Amino acid sequence: MCIEIHQNAEKNINEKAEALINSIQEIDKPFMSSQQNNELFSVATITTDDLSKNAKGTIKSRFDGEIGKTFFVDKRQYGLIDEGYKSFADVVKIVHKIKAVNIYLSYDYINENLFKWLQKRYTNEIDGDYTTYLLEHSKESIKKRTIMIPVPYTIIKYPFKLGHIEFWTLNEETIDSWFMNANTKQNKEFVEKSKKQVKLDFQGYAVGVYQCVAEEIRASELAYEHLINSLSILRMVSTANLHPLINCCAYEYGQKVIRTKHWFGFSEGKTSPLQASRLIEKDIPWNVGDLEMSMLGQLSDYDRLLTLEKLTPYQQKLFDATLIYSKNTLRYEVFDKILYILVALESMLLKGESESIQQNIAERIAFITGKTSKERVEIVKEVKDVYAIRSKYIHHGISDFEDNELLSKFMLRTLAVFQFFASKMDEFDDKVDLLEYLDGLKYS
Fold first, then answer.
1. Which of 8, 69, 86, 396 makes a 20 to 30 Å CA pair with 112?
2. Residue 303 forms part of a structural domain
3. Is residue 197 part of a domain?
4. pLDDT digit string (tens) for 230-281?
5. Is the pTM of this model over 0.85?
6. Among candidate residues 237, 235, 271, 267, the one with its CA nearest the CA of residue 251
7. Strands 286-288, 154-156: parallel, antiparallel or unpaired by DSSP?
8. Could you tell me if 124 and 88 lie in one domain?
9. What letter does residue 327 receive in the DSSP assignment?
């Protein structure tokens, strides 16, 4: 692997990086984490005696994130703050925008790498321009990597691939192999405890596996980007996509996001509590079996969509709408589900803001899924009834809903509509072509 930066871009970056050295200033009042007035458990406390020239600090704002970076020399703090840090962040962005760089290196890697170069230049430890330093040091970090991301509370019958992600079951043998070389006499107890916890949390559940060549953080970013897309398609075959009262647990960031009731109960005269918890979710774990795999086979067009390097305007619109649509499976409230489904449909089936929303959406869905005039009339009514439920909630705060049959029927129909969208992704160049096709059916 060799990162190549255009000569003009390289010159521009080096000039801006060199100028940053003059922005480094000594900070009279050290920026250190102040002691918080709370009862949270502290693992350790760092004092000024612990500081060395290798210690670095980050200044963060509650809303803006990182707003400064510092380092210590002989217990004195130096760094980039205010305008100096803004200029620093601008250089990081310039480097990260280069495609030959960002396919291998993350923004965070470049951020830390540039600041390390600035610190070494400021303390006269090194000489030379920044791009040479970046390219030389990144060689050690860019490797072939396998990233394995747990899919919460999801069990698969057999391995399969969807888009760029392979789905495996994380078994006991694999977990044991991770700890094999760490099991020494000195840390045996700690290793066994850690291994037991990993098995408790992840063994037997699915993992999404992604392979690439990149530094570690960038590899994890790419893995998550592709996993988000693949899980969005996978959730389309879950019960949560067909029933209003069920949500899906296959959420890329949801390892600990499972609703439970947890409480401490005290009996009169006793100081020791009874600790109890109860799971709220209805469909935990989610078993991806033969039925789901059969349904996934019917969504093979989506599998191909996930792997296309360049999308047409229609394919991009379909891709974006599908990600929105799939989010309904993660929602707990019926009205949230309805909102995500209707927004996704409207993004595909409306020409513009001036169109009558309910009538046009209803009619176009009717012509996609209805075969006879009578059936289409019934579909139009069904869609309008769903809109009425949403309207009562959004505009009047009425949250009473008992017609699960209506919404289940509508959710099944929506899945058929999105299957239709995907089946046409090679025929239509833009959404306009789709709408013209549907109007042709209506007036033919």
1. 8
2. no
3. no
4. 999 999 999 999 999 898 989 888 665 666 777 778 777 777 777 666 666 6
5. yes
6. 235
7. parallel
8. yes
9. G
Residue 273 DSSP code: P
Residue whose C-alpha is closest to residue 77's, from 101, 95, 59: 59
Cβ-contact 226, 163 below 8 angstroms: yes
List the domain range (segments joined by +) for residue 429: 308-443
Please report where in the chains the tokens 């029927």 appear, as a residue.
409
What single-letter amino acid sits at 183?
A: N
Model confidence at 149, pLDDT cuts 50, 70, 90, reads very high
Is the domain of 157 the same as that of 136? no
Tell whether 89 and 69 lie within a shared domain.
yes
Q: Give the position of tokens 């190549």.
A: 4
**Contact between residue 218 and residue 109 where contact means Cβ atoms under 8 Å apart:** yes
Domain contains 402: yes
* Residues sharing a CB contact under 8 Å with residue 55, sequence separation 6 or more, in sequence order: 71, 72
- Packed helices 404-423 and 357-369: angle between N→C axes, nearest 10 degrees: 70
Assess if residue 198 is contained within a domain: no
Token duo for residue 195 = 């291994």
- CB contact set of 136 (below 8 Å; sequence gap of 6+): none
**In the numeric block, which tokens belong to residue 1?**
């692997």
